[in-house]
Amino acid sequence: MAYSFPEEVLEYVFSFINSDKDRNAVSLVCKSWYEIERWCRRRIFIGNCYAVTPGIMVRRFPEIRSVEIKGKPHFADFNLVPEGWGGYVYPWVVAMSRAYPWLEEIRLKRMVVSDECLELISKSFKNFKVLVMSSCEGFSTDGLASIVANCRNLKELDLRESEVEDLSGHWLSHFPDTCTSLVSLNIACLASEVSFSALERLVSRCPNLKSLQLNRAVPLEKLPNLLRGAPQLVELGTGAYSAELRPELLSNLFDAFTVCKELKGLSGFWDVVPAYLPAIYPVCNGLTSLNLSYATIQSPDISKLISQCQNLERLWVLDYIEDSGLDILATCCKNLEELRVFPSDPYGVEQNVALTEQGLVSVSEGCPKLQSVLYFCRRMSNAALVTIARNRPNLIRFRLCIIEARATDYLTLEPLDAGFGAIVENCRELRRLSLSGLLTDRVFEYIGKHAKKLEMLSIAFAGDGDLGLHHVLSGCESLRKLEIRDSPFGDKALLANAAKLETMRSLWMSSCSVSYGACKLLGQRLPRLNVEVIDERGTPESRPESCPIEKLYIYRTVAGPRFDTPGFIWTMDEEGNTPLGIA
Amino acid sequence: MSSMNNLSESGKSGMNLKETELTLGLPGEPRVGKACMKRVFSETVDLELGNSGKKDSSGSGSSMKKESATSRGKLVGWPPVRAHRKNIMTVKSGKYVKVGVDGAPYLRKVDLELYNSYEQFLSALEGLFTCFKIRTVLDEKKLMDPVNGVEYVPTYEDKDGDWMLVGDVPWKMFAESCKRVRLMTRSEAIGLAPRPETKCSSSSS
């Protein structure tokens, strides 16, 4: 029985299918579905900018409106990826400027963006609406000026934690007076002062502005007026939250917040003066997201605030909250889904706050919807981890950082294998896990056995040898991203599980025991992977093949070896020849 | 050849200035590692030639900057706290130093961590004190009183208690070692030679 729907019908049906996975599945059904699907795909996500080339993308998908691209490996956040590694977005923008004149959205993460690039974006896409740059670098406020001056329909400009060369705050004044389209503006990462009057006018003439995140340079005195100009805000990041104590400012601020009936998210709070916290009481009950991770206030003040935010779903906070504050969180915030506790003094040797494993245990007991945890602390026990695992089998993300590397269970002085084992055994839906503390190969045995939905695993200072890595690579069926540092994993496990690497997005290993010879072998055996050796000591050819390399980044790709590698990266050749990268 | 590739890291100019730097080594020897670089003057000072106590190792020039796993017992990238979070946290306490100007009735306090360069810092001072403006005289920025032409020389007290001329060392080094700032009028600042017009890159005297 042969039948075919008219193309238009299929296209219409496909327009309801938005997830990448589903779209990819659709395209594999048959040749005609592949064709129809590729013409009507509007949104594309590229998890590794080197996995595919811009040329391949524009050839296959001619009508894209929205692009999201990620560059550097995650460990770049912690200075483990040397300067000059790559992740340049320029070739992508050039290709898109020719192929996608109607492109509307660009979202980038950990990429290098130049001012030239930003200017090209601003001039190439007439209907450009959304620019999100998360943890990017390489551009200055001049580049921002091009964007805001030329993109007439700009809806979102979000600089999320990017490193911007801050020449001045002048760029903001380049928004034309006719611009009323802004929905989201995040300049929290910028240091310079922007013109307050320009900002005030911009904010008050954009009726759809839902999200505004100011930078630290915006003083508290300016906040009431800004809020009055945008009472419809859903998300606000304050600037500096301090001023000398003036009753009129406090009541002015309080009144301004009272008008913000839609506010669901608050962040900012640099340099907090606790006396001004009551100004946000009017909005506390409506808050679902609160980011106090820059607020150096103590536990009693934090607790007072939290106890009023009964609808909180997401809390980011410093460890000043202490166990006592987390107890209060557990009691008051029954809708809590995500908790992140950051260290106030990560490099100090002594414990400076009364925050222990107990705080996390309390929250795991009290908050039935808790699914995502990032927790920095200075001590942990297997018993606590087991309790947490049993309390919260619905955990999806569990990232624990015990500050001292290789710290034991503080009660029994044993490794924390059993504790993390309990986590993976009980939390069947776990997708992301970061380990810390003293760990032997046993924990990896547990992970390989139980963590079947695990997609991302971060390992540091853990394991005894290759067996550990072997457990992970052979057992974790859903693994996409694996990043390892300072762990004694070597050649055997990698070579034995080489094929697994083609099912993953990427593998990062630094300060491990992988030899140059093994890398060459991997490069030979797996032509569809780029095996990149990163070594700042000079070419690995100048050392014996058995010598361990500094860092290794392996990723699957249809693009072949990249051509923008800096001098300290060598891509292993398919033929086992002298690797590419040496002139 | 790989040193040529290293240019792509800096990206900007085509001049391989590193190649022209003096090193200790036979001609044709590869210039690998810090070991063969000629010592910067401030490093030789650290050789305790009669000086008591250890100087702060952060003063010994940018060649020490490169983080290694063993320097000061700190591990690179551990604990895994993101750079912007680190910066925000360190700036929270601020590095407030007193700034006095001769003739001004009271001192001010500025947070050195808010600035990334001498220019930014001096502009901030200009904003704080009404008695001077920054004027450019012969390619140099000077702090001058617009009314009577008096020049102010910026000086600071460093960690060792010595009074130094502002501007000799890289900004970051200055910000770390500065304890207080004083803008002296030119007549008071005898003994401080005017800065030379051209800045030579460091080499021992």
Automatic annotation (TrEMBL), chain A:
Pathway participation: Protein modification; protein ubiquitination
InterPro entries xref list: COI1_F-box, F-box-like_dom_sf, F-box_dom, Leu-rich_rpt_Cys-con_subtyp, LRR_dom_sf, Transp_inhibit
**Superkingdom of source:** Eukaryota
Domain F-box, chain residue ranges per copy: 5-46
| Pfam annotation, one family | Transp_inhibit
Q: Which GO molecular function terms does the record list?
A: auxin binding
Per UniProt, which keywords does this protein have? Auxin signaling pathway, Developmental protein, Nucleus, Ubl conjugation pathway
Is the keyword Nucleus assigned to this protein? yes
Q: Name one GO cellular component term.
A: SCF ubiquitin ligase complex
Q: Which residues form the signal peptide?
A: none
Where found, per UniProt? Nucleus
Gene Ontology biological-process entries: auxin-activated signaling pathway; pollen maturation; SCF-dependent proteasomal ubiquitin-dependent protein catabolic process
Official protein name in the record: F-box domain-containing protein
Organism listed in the record: Daucus carota subsp. sativus
The lineage is:
Eukaryota, Viridiplantae, Streptophyta, Embryophyta, Tracheophyta
